[in-house]
Amino acid sequence: MDPIINPLPGIVPALGEKPAFAAGDRILISDRSPIGHYRMPTYLRGKQGTVEAVIEPMAVDNEEEAYGRNAGSKGHYYRIAIPMTEIWPDYEGSPNDGLRIEIFENWLEASR
């Protein structure tokens, strides 16, 4: 049992305290184009990857914080592995090559 998520028997995590994804989950990076400066590179939007790790502890969403909309609320960041062939379909390097990036939960969806 993860002591950060459920430290005491009988304690139920509040909404948002438990990560939506776990290591090994397949995800899709949301393909949206909000106005302003956002930290999700456009070349990764709409791409699929795999959660390598949930990054602990929870942290402030730096995009929302930059616009003064966060009010200190925290959420989950994930280390995502994306195969190079997902980014560049004609990639000719090793099939084991990939990119690793930390992404805030609001950019991720379950892969279909």
Layout of helices and strands:
Layout: E1 26-29, E2 48-60, H1 62-66, E3 74-83, H2 84-87, E4 98-104, E5 108-110
Antiparallel strand pairs: 1-2, 1-5, 2-3, 3-4
Describe, in plain words, how this protein is organized in 3D:
The chain contains 2 helices and 5 strands; from the N terminus they run ββαβαββ. The chain is mainly beta and 112 residues long. Strands 4-3-2-1-5 form a 5-stranded antiparallel sheet. The relative contact order is 0.24.
- Alpha-carbon distance between the termini? 28 Å
Q: Poorly predicted ranges (pLDDT <50, ≥5 residues)?
A: none
Which whole number gives the mean pLDDT? 87
Q: Structurally, how many domains make up the residues?
A: 1
Order of neighbouring strands in the sheet with most strands: 4-3-2-1-5
Main sheet summary:
5 strands, antiparallel
User: Percent of residues in beta strands?
Assistant: 25-35%
Total of helices = 2
CATH architecture, by name, is Roll
Radius of gyration: 16 Å
Structural class call reads mainly beta
Helical content class: under 10%
Describe the global form: globular
Report the count of strand segments. Answer: 5
CATH topology name: SH3 type barrels
What is the level 1 CATH name?
Mainly Beta
- SSE arrangement, N to C: EEHEHEE
